[in-house]
Amino acid sequence: MTQDELKQKVAQAAIKYVKDVPIIGVGTGSTVNYFIDYLADFRAEIEGAVSSSESSTQRLKKLGIPVLDLNAVGPLEVYIDGADEVSPHKHLIKGGGGALTREKIIAAASKTFVCIVDENKTVDVLGKFPLPVEVVPMARSYVARELVKLGGQPIWRENYITDNHNEILDVHNLSILEPKKLEAIINNIVGVVTVGIFAERPADIVLVGKGTEVITL
Ligand code: 5RP
């Protein structure tokens, strides 16, 4: 199977986690796009979705699924989202698509976070995928210097502005042996909005498209 076919398969497997869930948390990315497309089959039963990005919002609305404000709905039962890397502890790197801040908010506000990935995303140690860090624009260079002190090589994602009107630094060459610790350290740098390590609030369930199967971690 191609990577795209695996994404599609794992997205379909996630549907069982949202059956009978009236309001669904929806992430961002190509894997989630497949998931949104599958949601269309039972849109009449869905009260609405809380979306983590403008792009997912557009896709949901196009299919006739109402997009709701997180502030108006309280805790969510289930959040479905992809990831760029997944460790055996279900710690993640996210933000390749730039939506990490809203993704982290929805993950925090959800009882169950189901992460859907293809087998290429599973790793023993996080960090091969450049770690996205969303920063307030005026703090970009300062934060970059602080990230260099931590051993990383930050690269500015040029010509890219997040949905929250901020910028992204992609940090290369980090071997993230203590994800919770590094998440806290980077979060604590002034000017950082969100770091793409999801360890303090990891995934609860990871569905991995592998070969012809979907494996549950
Ligand atoms: C977006 C994300 C995505 O979940 C991550 O980039 C995976 O994307 P894809 O499903 O396209 O591989 O974190 O901010």
Give an overview in words.
By secondary structure, the protein is an alpha/beta fold. It is 29% helix and 27% strand. Strand 4 and strand 5 form a beta hairpin. Helix 1 crosses helix 2. The two termini are 20 Å apart. Ribulose-5-phosphate binds at residues 27-31, 81-84, 94-100, 103.
Please summarize what this structure is.
The chain is of the alpha/beta class and 217 residues long.
Task: Indicate the topology.
Layout: H1 3-13, E1 23-26, H2 30-39, E2 48-51, H3 54-62, H4 70-73, E3 76-81, E4 85-86, E5 92-93, H5 100-108, E6 110-118, E7 131-135, H6 140-149, E8 153-156, E9 167-172, H7 179-187, E10 192-195, E11 197-198, E12 205-210, E13 213-216
Parallel strand pairs: 1-2, 1-3, 3-6, 6-12
Antiparallel strand pairs: 4-5, 5-11, 7-9, 7-10, 8-9, 12-13
The protein binds ribulose-5-phosphate.
Q: What is the number of strand segments? A: 13
The radius of gyration is 17 Å
Helix fraction, binned, reads 25-40%
Straight-line N-to-C gap: 20 Å
Largest sheet: 6 strands, mixed
Number of helices in the DSSP assignment: 7
Low-confidence stretches: none
Mean pLDDT: 97
SSE topology string: HEHEHHEEEHEEHEEHEEEE
Estimated structural class? alpha/beta
Are any ligands bound, and if so which? ribulose-5-phosphate
Query: DSSP strand (E) fraction?
Result: 25-35%
Please list the strands of the largest sheet in the order they lie side by side.
2-1-3-6-12-13
Described by the principal axes of the CA atoms, the overall outline is: globular
